Amino acid sequence: MSLLGSAINALVVGVVGLVLAWLGKGQFDAIKARFEAVDQRFEAMETRIDRLKERFETRMDAFQASLDGMRSDLTQVALAVGARPRAADR
Prior knowledge:
Radius of gyration: 37 Å
Largest sheet: none
Oligomer: single chain
Structural class: mainly alpha
Number of strands: 0
Helix content: over 70%
């Protein structure tokens, strides 16, 4: 009789363990899906930041070219009116 009682207890413990494992697996799958969604959002943000960085660098290059042109024009005007270097710069 003790053997039958032990077998029934083992069966109940096994069934409860399987049910808990099945429920836990569902929770892990849900957590995994949420993390994947967060990863996708971060990748989308990274892509957007990269595009913004490229646009900013393009604008800065254009600004630098404009500034260089303005400096060149001002140098030409200064030379045309006969400007000389300051005494401290000699």
